[in-house]
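Appendix B, example 12.
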Amino acid sequence: MLDPGDNAELPAIPGKRYFTISEVSELCAVKPHVLRYWEQEFPKLRSVKRRGNRRYYQRHDVLLIREIRALLYIEGFTISGARNRLAAQGAQAPEDRRAEALAILAEGLRELRELLAGGAAAPES
């Protein structure tokens, strides 16, 4: 059986737009055939297919796969239980998700402002 490990032990997700199925397999410690199966079982998980039916995943897909992995391998959910849990999370109030997204955006803007303020204060040579 696959050693479930912990999502904290997984490698960081690079800043790319698209990931191949083999890259996602390594990033999430899940075999490619399992990813293809999960696409059938979890409606939220959809890869983009291009050039010769090759699968490409986006960052939000990788995060979702890690969440599915944690539900199945770490928390011990069944496939249908994990599907129901994800559906319940998706049914969260949109304002909750919006507030979280705004908080992340605000933090990014604060970091950018600090970076620009630090650059403006430094004398140019």
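Residues 1-5 have pLDDT under 50 and may be disordered. Helices lie at 21-28, 32-41, 59-74, 79-90, 94-121.
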